[in-house]
Design goal:
By secondary structure, the protein is α+β, with helices and mostly antiparallel strands. Helix content is 17%, strand content 31%. It has 2 domains: 290 residues, Carbon-nitrogen hydrolase (Nitrilase/N-carbamoyl-D-aminoacid amidohydrolase, 4-Layer Sandwich); 156 residues, no CATH class. The strands form 4 sheets. Strands 13-14-17-18-24-20-21 form a 7-stranded antiparallel beta sheet. A hairpin with a 2-residue loop joins strand 22 and strand 23.
Length: 547
């Protein structure tokens, strides 16, 4: 084979590869209505008694079907109530605490959805050619088709590879991905997404690069990601800023740590800051403090659930605008500073692994300023009611958070400590009885920092949000009338994506090497979904070169 023809062959396949990594989705469908109805289901997972035990494929399917039966019941209810889409949580079918070995019988082969220039549809519900290793995929497809509803669910996917041609192929000969799938009302697979930022999940492989999945729907442009992906510029921000996504379906298994990130606060804060609809489905496990789901618009929480007492699932349904960024944002209230400046001695507290500079709020009202490095935070506040046995502090953190996940944060916040002692400020409080009145908080965040508002209170049913009780705009958090319920935390959580240092993360190396071998750190430069194609390319190219 001549060199010219070889180069032409390689160039053609390179163009094909580039086509494979463009955002998924097709068509130019535009919403024909102003609102739509969305549903999310917070699911109590049916998990085997010994999740680390290796079971047969039939046993794995039987356990998965216990969860899928619940999905089918909830999808019927949602469809009957007029929902256009339903989102189910991360690990909702799979369950918790699997190892790389014990998860294998649960894995399925998931085909690629139809591309923008293809007429070939993938409808697992009616495709008899798909193997038995797609039984859960078929079940979800039929669920969507039978109820004429969009379905977003999370699965465990396998993708075989050959280490002879793929240097990043895991030691056991297959990639294992934490995967979201999207089905339309006809049961067609229209989107597939691999989780990028794993959180202590040794059974899965990290997607080599962040993927952008975009699906046009009758209710606007839909995107998706999984759990901790919400913290990172790609995919979370790129879906909105570069791809015009209106609604994001987020699957998650989120355990809640104080003072951030409470699941529902992170979810609401993202929707408020990014002016987007967010459909967030979490699993429910009180034992692990896992829970917190909701439906959010650019104006905040429409409906949400954070339950720490009843270990059962719950269906949430809400109405959302099809074009959330067209909603007029609420202006900041006019404000004149009249609180006296308060002088207090600061101290340091370790919170979520970070050294936070803290200032006790001992007065009923006041104005304080506190700095760490180049970030200075300011707070003007007054308490409607303050329990003298409760300690509230104003805190600032400016640095690299590297406990389990790595991200550079700039944070200002007011939060309650678990006791009167300063050393308790890193421990989650169980109650609060102090109610804050008017307050205004802001900081000298860098221009490249994205700031998200997280506000939580102590309601009669536990930890609550405060929708409609504050305004967030231009990185300023302001409440004119104060909050209705006792305060737990009010935080401006800033993310500077450009200062992230992923080499500082203490996440374990996952599965590209055996547990007894050191990771070589080789870079991966292709998307995970093209690995099988690369193997075919390598075999074909070697054969042609031998001719």
């Amino acid at each position: 084979m001549s060199l010219v023809k070889t180069l032409e062959f390689v160039w053609g396949l390179t163009i094909t590869l580039l086509c494979l990594v463009v955002p998924l989705g097709y068509g130019t469908q535009q919403p024909a209505r102003d609102t739509f109805t969305a549903a999310v289901y917070e699911h109590r997972v049916r998990n085997p008694p010994d999740p680390e035990a290796v079971v047969t494929r039939d046993e794995a399917i039987a356990w998965s079907y216990r969860n899928l039966r619940v999905y089918r019941e909830q999808a019927k209810i949602a469809a009957r109530k007029g929902a256009d889409i339903i989102v189910f949580p991360e690990n909702g079918i799979l369950g918790y605490d699997k190892t790389r070995a014990s998860i294998r019988p649960y894995l399925e082969l998931i085909p690629e959805p139809r591309g923008p220039s293809s007429n070939h549809t993938v409808v697992p519900c009616k495709d008899k050619k798909l193997s038995r290793n797609t039984s859960k995929l078929k079940n979800l497809s039929c669920l969507a088709r039978d109820n004429s509803i969009y379905v977003v669910a999370n699965m465990a996917e396998k993708l075989p590879c050959d280490s002879g041609y793929d240097l990043n192929c895991p030691y056991d000969g297959q990639y294992q991905f934490d995967t979201n799938v999207i089905f339309d009302t006809k049961g067609e697979l229209v989107g597939k997404y691999h989780k990028k930022y794993l959180y202590w999940q040794p059974m899965f492989d990290t997607a080599p690069v962040p993927e952008i999945v975009v699906v046009p729907t009758p209710f606007g442009i839909l995107g998706t990601f999984v759990a901790g992906d919400i913290y990172y510029q790609s995919p979370a921000l790129e879906l909105i800023e570069k791809n015009g996504v209106d609604t994001i379906a987020m699957t998650t298994t989120w355990d809640n740590t104080f003072p951030y990130p409470r699941a529902v606060a992170v979810q609401e804060g993202f929707a408020l800051r990014m002016h987007v609809n967010l459909l967030a489905a979490n699993t429910q496990a009180i034992k692990y403090d896992i829970g917190g789901s909701g439906i959010y618009s650019s104006a905040g929480a429409v409906v949400y659930r954070y339950n720490t007492t009843h270990d059962h699932g719950q269906l949430l349904i809400g109405t959302l605008p099809t074009k959330p960024r067209a909603q007029t944002p609420q202006p900041l209230p006019s404000w004149v500073e009249d609180n006296p400046e308060v002088k207090e001695k600061s101290f340091q507290a370790t919170i979520s692994g970070n050294t936070v500079e803290c200032l006790p709020l001992t007065h009923l009202e006041g104005r304080v300023r506190l700095c760490q490095k180049d970030l200075c935070c300011s707070l003007s506040y007054s308490f409607k009611r303050k329990n003298e046995n409760e300690l509230f502090v104003f805190g600032v953190f400016n640095g690299l958070h590297s406990e389990l996940i790595s991200m550079y944060t700039q944070t200002c916040g007011v939060f309650k400590c678990s006791s009167k002692q300063p050393e308790s400020c890193g421990i989650a409080p169980t109650t609060s009885s102090s109610i804050i009145g008017e307050f205004r908080m802001w900081g000298t965040f860098s221009k490249s920092t994205y700031v998200f508002p997280y506000v939580t209170t102590q309601g009669t049913s536990g930890i609550c949000l405060a929708p409609g009780q504050f305004v967030f705009r231009d990185n300023v958090l302001h409440s004119v009338d104060g909050l209705t319920d006792p305060l737990l935390s009010a935080i401006l959580f800033g993310r500077n994506y450009y200062r992230d240092d992923f080499t500082a993360s203490v996440n374990p190396p996952y599965s590209t090497v055996p547990p007894t071998t050191k990771q070589n750190g080789a870079a991966v430069i292709i998307t995970a979904s093209t690995s099988a194609f690369i193997i075919v390319f390598a075999l074909t190219f070697r054969t042609m070169m031998q001719k």
